[in-house]
């Protein structure tokens, strides 16, 4: 059976197990009133009993010979009393002796019963520690000495966080942290963990996090708060250890890639919605390009200062941003190397819902102009306070020719390891986005500028929340209605989306427009005559207005 089928089966099975568990819980401990309380009490007693038995059994298995000897002595004592037909009690003595001799096991069982979590953690830690010499040697970390002795890196501490076991490992003399980094995937597999993260603690000391869960539970976003709306660390979801996941927006461009249904909308709205309070105060300005006819961005249009649903408008928005960038260059020259956003001189965030619609599926002239302007923004914008968040489904070259200009990448579920490689390059080994399961939309690897990956799940943004946020935190400088603007009703949005899809597709030419003509077969082009250089275009009036305000 091939891997995708197996993955699909596993996902179906997982979903069934989750729903069966939920149903059982609802029918028992989840019930309201006295019956629910009775179920909960019974479950608590059963669990503690089970933990006592487990603790005692583990101790007995570890001291099997001693337990056997106690059994022989106890039964032997009782047997002698019985055979000799001595009068009096023949049971109490042997039983008391057995209880006294087995008392450490009983204490062990009580420990497991009273603090089950602490007990399980300690037991797991002991197992990891006991296996470490073998694991380290098998993963190539051993150093054989002339006398035949094998030295291994010291495992000094084991720590537990939600969803991860953290091993603190010290390099041997002659080893570098790279040696440990290289061995990390093998150590992870040997301990049967779901993934790993590495953190350098100090020179020669590494914290290796082994993930104990493969999935991150989804959560729904709440209303954003002004103090949290920082482009230097925007809260966008949860990490595998249950901590808040942060995304740095300022000073970097972000490419978001994911298959259809992988949750690009969650990433987009986590950023747009998360920044909304800063938009309202004027320290962030959003520009949006949504060439799917506005189906995604229309719902939050009042948050955007510039918005485009058609390719010609998209080019206009890009030109305005380039003009702002050029003005800023002059203003910042010799004074500052990184733009500090503030009301009146905001951080500009350009949000593109489907990059390929602009860069691959538009007409030739638009593509060329968009490519030129995007290159400028991507190469010069980040220090000048103009950042891009571009979402795309297809990571191939024709759709994202400039992917190397995005220092930060978010890889949601991808269809194949080839696509992961295309998006993440060498970081793919640590961020296998093609292994993210379909039932976990919004789960993604964030690969930062330094190449360090982190698995996280972006919060889900329901439509009602987006509308509410757009209403509360509207920008003080709202966008003019874009040409081809839609009514906000869902029915209209769907119609517009269908029309836009038809314009892009080559099966239906009904929605053909000048911006997006349906592809048709072309004759081979004759070589071009050299042209006189074009006079530079004057900057559009709107852009000047943007900068001077
Ligand atoms: N963070 C999340 N948690 C839970 N469910 C989510 C999350 N994000 C998205 N979903 C679910 O997945 C569905 C698809 O998400 P979304 O539309 O964002 O995907 P997409 O990648 O934008 O797809 P497309 O490229 O086809 O537009 C949503 O309708 C929602 O039900």
UniProtKB/TrEMBL annotation:
Region described as Disordered: 501-549
Q: What is this protein called?
A: FtsK/SpoIIIE domain-containing protein
Q: Which organism is it from?
A: Promicromonospora vindobonensis
Q: Which residues bind ATP?
A: 258-265
Which keywords has UniProt assigned to this entry? ATP-binding, Membrane, Nucleotide-binding, Transmembrane, Transmembrane helix
Q: Where is the signal peptide?
A: none
Q: Which InterPro entries match?
A: AAA+_ATPase (IPR003593), FtsK/SpoIIIE/SftA (IPR050206), FtsK_dom (IPR002543), P-loop_NTPase (IPR027417)
Q: Which residues form the FtsK domain?
A: 240-421
Question: Origin, by domain of life?
Answer: Bacteria
Record's Gene3D superfamilies?
P-loop containing nucleotide triphosphate hydrolases (3.40.50.300)
Task: Mark out the compositionally biased spans (Low complexity).
Answer: 501-511
TM ranges are: 64-83, 95-114
Q: Compositional bias of type Basic residues: which residue ranges?
A: 520-534
């Amino acid at each position: 059976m091939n891997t995708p089928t197996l993955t699909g089966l596993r996902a179906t099975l997982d979903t069934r197990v989750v729903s069966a568990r939920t149903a059982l819980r609802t029918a028992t401990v989840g019930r309201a009133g006295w019956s629910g309380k009775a179920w909960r009490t019974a479950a608590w007693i059963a669990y503690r009993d089970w933990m006592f038995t487990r603790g005692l059994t583990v101790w007995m298995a570890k001291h099997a010979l001693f337990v056997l000897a106690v059994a022989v002595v106890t039964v032997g004592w009782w047997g002698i009393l019985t055979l000799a037909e001595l009068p009096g009690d023949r049971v109490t003595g042997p039983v008391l002796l057995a209880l006294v001799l087995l008392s450490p096991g009983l204490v062990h069982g009580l420990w497991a019963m009273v603090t089950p979590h602490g007990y399980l953690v300690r037991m797991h830690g002991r197992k990891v520690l006991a296996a470490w010499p073998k694991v380290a040697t098998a993963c190539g970390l051993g150093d054989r000495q002339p006398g035949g002795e094998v030295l291994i890196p010291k495992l000094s501490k084991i720590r537990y966080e939600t969803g991860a076991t953290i091993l603190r490992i010290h390099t041997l003399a002659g080893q570098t942290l790279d040696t440990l980094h290289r061995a990390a995937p093998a150590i992870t597999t040997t301990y049967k963990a779901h993934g790993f993260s590495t953190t350098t603690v100090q020179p020669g000391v590494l914290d290796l996090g082994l993930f104990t869960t493969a999935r991150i539970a989804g959560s729904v976003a709440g209303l954003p708060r002004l103090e949290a709306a920082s482009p230097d660390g925007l809260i966008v979801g949860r990490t595998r250890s249950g901590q808040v996941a942060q995304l740095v927006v300022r000073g970097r461009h972000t490419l978001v890639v994911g298959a259809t249904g992988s949750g690009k909308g969650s990433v987009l709205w986590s950023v747009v919605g998360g920044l909304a309070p800063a938009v309202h105060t004027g320290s962030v300005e959003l520009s949006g390009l949504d060439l799917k006819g506005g189906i995604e961005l229309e719902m939050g249009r009042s948050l955007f200062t510039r918005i485009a649903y058609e390719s010609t408008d998209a080019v206009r928005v890009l030109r305005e941003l380039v003009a702002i960038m050029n003005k800023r260059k002059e203003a910042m020259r010799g004074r500052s190397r990184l733009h500090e956003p503030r009301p009146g001189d905001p951080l500009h965030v350009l949000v593109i819902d489907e990059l390929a619609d602009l860069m691959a599926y538009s007409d030739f002239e638009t593509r060329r102009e968009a490519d030129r302007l995007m290159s400028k923004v991507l190469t010069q914008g980040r220090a000048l306070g103009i950042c891009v968040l571009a979402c795309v489904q297809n990571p191939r070259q024709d759709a994202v020719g400039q992917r190397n200009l995005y220092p930060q990448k978010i890889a949601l579920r991808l269809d194949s390891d080839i696509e992961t490689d295309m998006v993440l390059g060498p970081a793919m080994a640590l961020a296998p986005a093609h292994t993210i399961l379909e039932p976990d939309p919004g789960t993604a690897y964030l690969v930062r500028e330094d190449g360090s990956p982190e698995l996280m799940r972006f919060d889900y943004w329901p439509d009602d929340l987006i509308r509410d946020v757009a209403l509360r935190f509207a920008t003080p400088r709202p966008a003019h209605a874009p040409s081809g603007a839609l009514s906000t009703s869902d029915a209209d949005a769907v119609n517009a989306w269908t029309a836009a899809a038809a314009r892009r597709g080559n099966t239906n030419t009904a929605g053909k427009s000048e911006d997006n003509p349906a592809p048709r077969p072309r004759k081979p082009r004759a070589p071009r005559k050299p042209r006189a250089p074009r006079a530079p275009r004057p900057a559009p009036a709107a852009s000047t207005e943007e900068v001077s305000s």
